[in-house]
Amino acid sequence: MHLKYESQLREPLVSGNKTYHQVTEDIIRPIEAKPSRLWYIGFYIAVALLCFGIYSIYRDVTYGIGQWNLNKTIGWGWDITNFVWWVGIGHAGTLISAILLLFRQGWRTGVNRAAEAMTIFAVMCAGQFPIWHMGRVWMAFFVLPYPNTRGPLWVNFNSPLLWDVFAISTYFTVSLLFWYSGLLPDLATVRDRAFTKLRKRLYGIASFGWSGSTKHWQRHESLSLVLAGLSTPLVLSVHTIVSFDFATSVVPGWHTTIFPPYFVAGAIFSGFAMVQTLMVIIRKVFEMEDYITMGHIEAMNKVIVLTGSIVGIAYLTELFMGWYSQNKYEGYTFWYSRAYLFSPYGWSYWGMMACNVLSPQIFWFRKMRRNLFVTFFMSIIVNIGMWFERFVIIVTSLYRDYLPSSWSVYYSPSIWEIGFYAGTFGLFFTCFFLFAKYFPVIAVAEIKYVLKTSGESFKDNMGHIEAESLETFVHEQAHAH
Amino acid sequence: MAKKKFVVGCFDDEAVLFPAVKKVRSAGYKIHDVYTPFAVHGLDHAMGLRETSLHTAGFIYGITGTSTALGCISWILAKDWPLNFGGKPHFALPAWIPITFELTVLFAAVGMVLTFCYLCQIAPFVKKHHFHARATDDLFVMVIECTEKTNVDDLKSFLSNNGAIETDVQIAEAGWWLGRYDQDELPFENKQTVAA
Q: Cα separation of A462 and A455, whole Å?
């Protein structure tokens, strides 16, 4: 039910003296204005990276993935690391929009739109890696189960890699639907106040003729709620299935039952860090400080310190089990290949520990959670750390396998592996810059919905309720329409 | 769809809108719709709309997904082309749970969104008559359908007395048509003139 009253103790979700119209003005204005110089610079850098990525992929397809430095034991290197990293980042958007919707967290309204967009772009980037790693990418459709002339030889439904195909494509589709159905009313807002013909026409097409009818809103609410309910187990299942790619194997360091919850916590951790990176920039560039308040930033930092600590516990549990299992291979992987600083890849393990477990602890302090510079800096650190985590899991488990004669080669990526990764950054930021220019970066209708309960100027009018006796309060709230 | 005559009342505060909706209904007028810039909770009840059954549709789509996945996979792996994967059973139900779950969610989500679009009659290139441009900005626009008995002036003053800041009368198409938002005319209006 609609909460008519919110305690004054709670920080307002929208600061400043806003009316409904002012909310529309503030959020839609960047779409109608010419983009700033900063936007062009950022956009061209992103496009340049994207072009380099496309060239790297062109080479991958032409010369084969032999141009990557994969070797006898490391058959998955940067590509799978980047895949898991991007998928992980793609978890925050749906978490914010779905799980926080079910938990009735009002602060999600300020950040959900941009976070969902980020999710979609991150999943698009993630999808590139398994696709181009196929080498003969023109055979990619072989992963689809369809009646064929090869037997018919079907795909293996018992394989975690096929589960991944279904999980990632379902996740992408559902996130896209969730995001776009939420966008419809806001696109209609842009349409109805457009003063150029082209904008009116294009947003008219994009908004599907949305009118704001009460019946439509009622269905829209039902749709959002059910999609949130579906997305909540979906978001948990996706990274669980990604972790199954490793956990169902018999490679030491991968063959671990804690992988699913540990991967999900890590995904939320890195996803929130990426949301922070983007939010700090957006609120500055588009002057959205009234909508993405310090309260929002602080709430996300709390999630970061929580999930960072869960990930930390998982690392320690793995180390403990490496010793407690008394399995020589597990012990070697965890205590030599990873935790021993002077082993060939020891630096990556300790880099991961420093970035993911130690440094986020700074967010136990309120002053640090509410410091923009610290937040921005930490959001980058966390994403570096989470990249290292995947690198550690993949490379340190593989580079010394059961056959010492294949150990010799030290794996470091070729320029085309790096180029491919840089290209996905290009794709991500190209999409994000276009999104920030052409779509409302904050959910206008949802902000209006919380405005009268959580807006700064409206909260003050609730003072008399704070002084009421409990009986009067209960009586009044129970009869709110 | 035929054109109809409507009386439009605009409100700028939902606290004024609610009592107005009640009064208009009890006075016996037929509310065509109320257009709001965001989801105003409780307005559907105040207008006497029934609950949507969209979620029931979602449930049915979900079950369809579950049975599609289980049916297809078991037919493929246990009957059509049984393969030996490391000596494991052909009917390996636990290993099929992930895909079954994913297809359940996929069917439910896609089905629900399509049903939502169908029920609301919204799609790309669809155009509707919008009674007030600020209905997606900051106004709550109540639209009342006129019958031959309706006294338009009475109704307008009735709305104003109940807090409407703006009232007018519009003759408009109630359905949708394929059209462009940068052009105002109805595409099939010309045909009607020719026929007449």
A: 11
